Automatic annotation (TrEMBL):
GO biological process: glycoside catabolic process; oligosaccharide metabolic process
Name of this chain's protein: Alpha-galactosidase
Description of how the protein assembles with itself and partners: Homodimer.
Species assigned in the record: Zophobas morio
Lineage of the species this protein comes from: Eukaryota, Metazoa, Ecdysozoa, Arthropoda, Hexapoda
GO-annotated cellular components: cytoplasm
Length: 416
């Protein structure tokens, strides 16, 4: 039932010789992406506030810059599918839908940059995007150059309408042309999501800053659990590929949308934080309720997610309804790491469940004990020895995120 952290630390050893070396995404990317909330709404007559348009992204840039998101670290504003015109222009270049993006993409990117944000966009390696717009389809050089000229800082390249056979090579070729533009561009690939565990993950590390591994998230708690279960089931394989500059991506946060309760939102934030997942919000920032905004802006959660060691967390305890993910983080005292513990209660409904465990059951062994901070229930941190039982109440379909720091010896040996 328990997996001791000290023994599974071995799993964290990442030994790739070659990783993409563009200096980007050294911690998991933080930002906002349009897909999950705004999908492919192109009808601006009936949905003037929700359609994929220049106005939506300017409004979102304003909210990110003015409502604390940028300050908290959410820097990438990423347009997903459905920005393109149905045809390339007469020079064979990609162009946006002229009605919905009347000022062009460069002008929108300039606006986003003027707010201190970074700009991301979406394309597809195949003949068409998933929604049917023109794909890159072999036009690697001209498209890479177009994106660089527009000021793109992040590109998500999907994998619809392309043979899975040899997909890695196509992503590699486009990545080479991105590199040749000399503009630093975070490269998000999708071939692992299309090829499953047969995908060449060594190639993903070499080519991409992050990659989608699994299906699209839908706006419901069952999907959060399903994705978390898939990553946990395959953690022994997946986690060794993730680290600074190259990340597994379980897809967007759905916090603040229609499908998750407050407790379920804390649970998604907890699991994604501890997995060292990219945190890409997909919510209407003009309308988000303050309690959901506070979850997204929780500075302790964000600092755990952004820990510079970049070690993805592991499911270390699975007791059916109660599952505990753990992630080594800084600071360290001598050779003792700090840890994040994400304790998730999968039970639907009913009443809160009291979870009890000791830190030594997870292999923590700092002689002076640890201080524990309950991230989403702020109170003074408590100090425990590794054998003292910790009891914590976790709401149904909810979670607790704990930050567990080793206590430094108070009796430092004097050399005088
Ligand atoms: C291009 O690749 C080289 C070699 O890996 C790397 O040093 C450089 O930072 C890359 N440049 C960009 C803009 O990605
Ligand atoms: C996977 O990719 C790596 C790095 O590009 C390559 O060396 C290796 O041959 C590939 N493996 C397979 C089975 O194609």
């Amino acid at each position: 039932m328990y997996t001791k952290i000290l023994s599974i630390l071995l799993l964290y050893t990442f030994t790739s010789v070659h990783a993409l070396d563009n200096g980007l995404a050294l911690t998991p990317p933080l930002g906002w992406m349009s897909w999950q909330r705004f999908r492919c709404i192109t009808d601006c007559v009936n949905y003037p506030n929700d359609c994929i348009s220049d106005q939506l992204f300017r409004d979102t840039a304003d909210r990110m810059a003015e409502d604390g998101y940028l300050e908290a670290g959410y820097e990438y504003l990423i347009i997903d599918d459905c920005w393109l015109a149905n045809e390339r222009d007469s020079d064979g270049r990609l162009q946006p839908n002229a009605d919905r993006f009347p000022n062009g993409i460069k002008d929108l990117a300039d606006y986003i940059h003027s707010k201190g944000l970074k700009f991301g966009i979406y394309e597809d390696i195949g003949t068409n995007t998933c929604a049917g717009y023109p794909g890159i389809n072999g036009q690697y050089e001209i498209d890479a150059n177009t994106f660089a000229e527009w000021g793109v800082d992040y590109i998500k390249v999907d994998g619809c309408y392309e043979d899975t056979e040899g997909m890695e090579d196509k992503y590699a070729q486009f990545g080479d042309y991105l590199n040749q533009t000399e503009r630093p561009i975070v490269y998000s690939c999708s071939f692992p999501a299309y090829k499953g565990l047969e995908a060449n993950y060594t190639a993903a590390v070499e080519i991409c800053n992050l990659w989608r591994n699994y299906g699209d998230i839908q706006d419901q708690w069952d999907d959060v659990k399903n994705i978390a279960n898939w990553f946990a089931t395959n953690q022994g394989f997946l986690n060794k590929f993730a680290g600074p500059g190259h990340w597994n991506d379980p897809d967007m946060l759905i916090i603040g949308d229609y499908g998750l309760s407050y407790d379920e939102s804390i649970a998604q934030m907890t699991i994604w934080t501890v997995m060292a997942a990219p945190l890409l919000m997909s919510v209407d920032l003009r309308k988000i309720e303050p309690e959901f905004r506070d979850i997204l802006l929780n500075s302790d959660a964000l600092s755990i997610n952004q820990d510079v060691l970049g070690i993805p967390g592991l499911l270390a305890w699975n007791n059916g309804n109660v599952r505990i993910w753990t992630k080594p983080i800084l600071p360290q005292v001598d050779d003792k790491h700090s840890y994040a513990f994400g304790i998730v209660n999968y039970e639907n409904g009913g009443s809160p469940h009291v979870v009890e465990f000791t830190l030594d059951e997870f292999g923590l062994d700092n002689a002076d004990g640890y201080t524990i901070k309950n991230v989403f229930e702020p109170s003074d941190p408590v100090t425990v020895s590794v054998t003292e039982p910790i009891r914590i109440s976790v709401n149904p379909s909810g979670a607790a995120l704990l930050q567990v720091n080793p206590v430094a010896p108070s009796h430092a040996t004097s050399l005088l």
